[in-house]
Queue: 3 jobs
Job 1
Amino acid sequence: MALAATRAAQLTTTGLESLGWTDAEAAQVAAHAHVARVFAVHRSDIEVRGPQGLDRIDRATAGGLDGVAVGDWLELTDGGGVARILERRNAITRKAAGEHVHRQVLSANVDRLLIVTSCNQEFSLRRLERYLVLACDCDVTPEIVLTKADLTDQVAGYADQAASLLAGVPVHAVDARSAEQVGALVASLRLGETLALIGSSGVGKSTLGNAIGAPNLETGAIRKLDDKGRHTTTVRAMFPLPSGALLIDNPGIRELQLTDCERGISRVFADVLSLAERCQFQDCQHGAEPGCAVREAIADGRLPARRLESLQDLRTEQARNAEILESKRQRARDIGHKYRKLNWSKRAKRGQ
Ligand SMILES: Nc1nc2c(ncn2[C@@H]2O[C@H](COP(=O)(O)OP(=O)(O)OP(=O)(O)O)[C@@H](O)[C@H]2O)c(=O)[nH]1
Ligand SMILES: [Mg+2]
Ligand SMILES: [Zn+2]
């Protein structure tokens, strides 16, 4: 509750707008409906905040909270129960994870997704591309925050590489521990705007959160050997900032695998795909085919070869994950079918 008290103290405006309420939510409920926004999701309860302040809802007794995510809006019953989760404007949904493919909503109703990466061994264009695809696929505007700018004299090089991945993507290079260096980011924050931080463990998401005004997020040292973090943040939670914006700090992501993100891919790889439209063959694989506009662009330096490789790798990975997902669904269908058959034969035996 100490955490909840700190958050309560930080909220300066009590109106729903300060919690991120928009016309999209207003259109879904009656004018005097009771609503609250989800600030943290725990195993047994959730923390919500509405015009009346902070509250905790027990998941078992409330019901109706399956799949609830930080950032969701809830319509409450007169008795304080949960009537329903309002339709989301958008959701950062992780559709696949390593061997176990599943869908997981990381943050809901997000205005700005800050993809955090560091100027050290963690920096990877491939990884950044994945995060950008995820953001674009979820219809959220991405921004890149390059932390640990103080640890390199190559900041401009890192920033240029990051910016080259998606036309117009803002890149903020900072020492995330410095309130002064994050000043421009803070100045851009608006009342009721929801920001979410995602990235690997140890890149400085919580450090950045603290610098932009979140109340004392826990941070932890990284391993010297490989710059990997130790998964310090374990709970997804949202915090009001002094600027009036809301910040969702996420735990570090181990490995971001993608499936079913074709829309995101088509946006992030628009450069490769628009060249591909000019290939002589419609089904060109951009290998040895004659008249390949993609190969031509690579040969004369207009397109970095790694962009094509990235696109092809992501497509292969998507296809593999889609297969795993489909075989899981099939297995679930088979089990459901067997179960129904068993129940049916039991009832038949009992003569029901
Ligand atoms: N030098 C330097 N250190 C930083 C910077 N940002 C973060 N750190 C340090 O990096 C370590 C990890 O920072 P965290 O904020 O805990 O990282 P995180 O992304 O929240 O990690 P998880 O919660 O594990 O996902 C801490 O020791 C921070 O002090 C930076 O810009 N410069
Ligand atoms: Mg953290
Ligand atoms: Zn081609």
Job 2
Amino acid sequence: MSRNKQGALIGCGFFADNHMHAWKTLEGAEIGAVCDLDRAKATAMATKFGIARIYDDPAKMFDHENLDFVDVATTVESHLPLVRLASTHAKTVICQKPFAENMKDAHAMVAAAKNAGSNLLIHENFRWQKPFLTMKKLVDDGTIGTPHFAHFSFRHGYDNYVNQPYLAKIDRFAIMDVGLHLFDLARLFMGEVAHLSCTKQSLNPIVQGEDAFTALLNMENGGTCICDCSFYSKFSPEPFPNTAAVIEGDKGTVHLDRWNRLTVHTASGAETSNVDPAVPLWGAKPWHCVQDSVTNFQAHAIDVMHGRTNPRPSGEDNLRTMALALAAYDAAEQASSMNMAQWSED
Ligand SMILES: NC(=O)c1ccc[n+]([C@@H]2O[C@H](COP(=O)([O-])OP(=O)(O)OC[C@H]3O[C@@H](n4cnc5c(N)ncnc54)[C@H](O)[C@@H]3O)[C@@H](O)[C@H]2O)c1
């Protein structure tokens, strides 16, 4: 085995804890430095994970560190300068979603990585969740034939605003936070989108932006896909943070319920299995499916760093997902369908 790739984490907030736990459990890469504008957060992270080098200024960190990879786990407004800087100092840059607030910034990051000869991966972890890895294998194996309809649904009533208070204060919330994940799944299973229409709702009075949306996607291959999300739905037991899904093909259907039970319907009948992943030793319910997917995604990032595979998804691939999220706002606000071949941000 070649030596461990040397990395740094930028952004030591709520979700970065999962990144750090996953890096600790994986072979082939290790984090040797952490950075946060808030030095107390960087210090707390370094202490918790035994990291020797602590920074509160990314530029200073890059002056002092010799890095193979950088893991950017900050919120979206900082991604452009950080990805630009990281690209010139490391061969692999991983950026959390949402990748960017607009297409101009997203394209600028893709160009920066390309010009620097660096691999840009987007931390798009829903496709790395065990239920979706299982469904992808079933679809790729031909178990349900050719898919013609899919539905991805993320609905819950969990109080996200305790851990992520910024979510209640942003103008663009549900589509940019979770829509991106669902659109990535739609593209993964159904291909590219021809037309998109969308409605959005503001349900919880403490939330500034939309906290629910329903999007209808007409796929280039003639398929149909629905993506919907709500942060204000009442279920028992609480399904957060799971995604329900249905994919129908000409030979069968796969159905994932909100509690990670997967039923495969074919001509020979229906079979249900539990695809809920084990809680990682370092993890806790209800986050375990997400935590497991962080480990799966980062294991993939290590394969990319060692030249064993290509980024899934790359920054370049994620441009189309970003475009769907941004077009969804236009579709909802103009109450009309967006032709994705012609849609542009302006
Ligand atoms: N993929 C997922 O399942 C998932 C889940 C939750 C959050 N996220 C994403 O992770 C990102 C971080 O979310 P969070 O909830 O951890 O946010 P957070 O606010 O808790 O943490 C972000 C940290 O980044 C630091 N920071 C900001 N700008 C910086 C800069 N220029 N240099 C250094 N540090 C900087 C902040 O001080 C803060 O400590 C968001 O983009 C969010 O959408 C992804």
Job 3
Amino acid sequence: MMSLAAFGSAHRASNWFSCEGLAQGITRLWEPQVHSFFRSNVFHVRGRDGDLVIDGGMGLVPLRPVLGLLPGKPVVAVATHVHVDHVGALSEFQTRLGHRAEAAFFADMADEHTLAGYFREMADGLDHLPYKGWSQQPFHVQPAPLSRILADGDVVETGDRSFRVLHLPGHSPGSIGLLDELNGDFLTGDAIYRGRLVDDLPGSDVPAYRKTMQRLLQIEFSRAYCGHGETIDQDELRSIARTYLDSPS
Ligand SMILES: [Zn+2]
Ligand SMILES: [Zn+2]
């Protein structure tokens, strides 16, 4: 299981998830069989007093059992935003955090906010079925009402690490990032990642996204763990942000 997640190399965490160990007790998990558009990252941060699970993948198979959580140790799930590829497994966790602007959406996980219908209608959404007999058509996201509603500037603690909540709207109204200023780790959700930034979904807001890019240019960090794809550094993040700002809006 997660003890196999040696630093910097990808492993199978289960029949469904792949994982790799990153710096400072953070593990990245992803679902290689899912279409690249929906293949998002789950980050597991092992803290001294509690763990954070940032985002929850598609929820096609249970996530929690593959994390290797310690019995009795608190675990807090943080959703960077309510899209289907990030909240599929959120209901598996008792303590669930997300931003105020999308708080109502977590309670019912309606398709119009999760955009799960896009996945149901995708002909090539999966390379393999998660298990025999699984069907795409009834797929939907389990409701997962928030137990704590986040706003910009809030702090999420693990005992030995503090992550500041940054509201980074544009991709979606309640998109957030989590920044550990002390250790230089920045979890960005879908606010920014390597590849085409998606700003044309229902709920997307290009002017808000441009303001988010201006803000991202000012943030100091060492490693950005993005909602999709590989870890990027500050130079690459700023280059992506500048490219977005330079493109016609
Ligand atoms: Zn998204
Ligand atoms: Zn995403």
